[in-house]
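In response to reviewer comment 3 from the previous cycle, which asked for concrete evidence that the modeling workflow produces usable outputs, we include below a single protein chain processed end to end. The sequence was submitted unchanged, and the resulting structure tokens are shown without manual editing.
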Amino acid sequence: MNQDIAKVLLSEDEISEIINRLSSEVTKDYKNKNLCLLCVLKGSLIFCADLMRRLDFPVELICISASSYKNATVSSGNVEINSLTDNITGKDVLIIEDILDTGNTLSNLIKYLKELSPASVEICTILDKPSRRVKDISAKYVGSVIPDEFVVGYGLDYNQRYRNLPYIGILKPEIYNN
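The workflow returned the following structure tokens.
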């Protein structure tokens, strides 16, 4: 797997520092609130677990599937969201996302969630790629702003592979251009 990576963008240590910073920010803002972490599967699973373990107050965890990629390297623009079975009415919802790219997935997800009457909805993303944004959306909590490169690792994938890399790296173009 490592041979498929052109460059390590964020090392394990850098990711850990980001998680520490983000958990401090989230704790400061939500410690005395009814916080519900909404993990966007599958890419955010590792990030969400690491972040959640560093929060020193009770939180609720909900997982949802929402995607616009379908095993491609760019968003299709067509977002599929699985229905939420948990009640979020009156709760502060913090969407935990792996990457904020075009904004298609998150803008559709937020629209869907607001119909369920939460107290608030915010975004926490480990990666932000503003150069690709097509929707007017931003995250309250951002781990790292990255260049327009195709990244994998730490939950992010290409064709369901590379999620288990302990770092975030830029995938060699010859891997996904074949």
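The mean pLDDT is 92. We consider this sufficient to address the reviewer's concern, and the full set will be provided in the supplementary archive.
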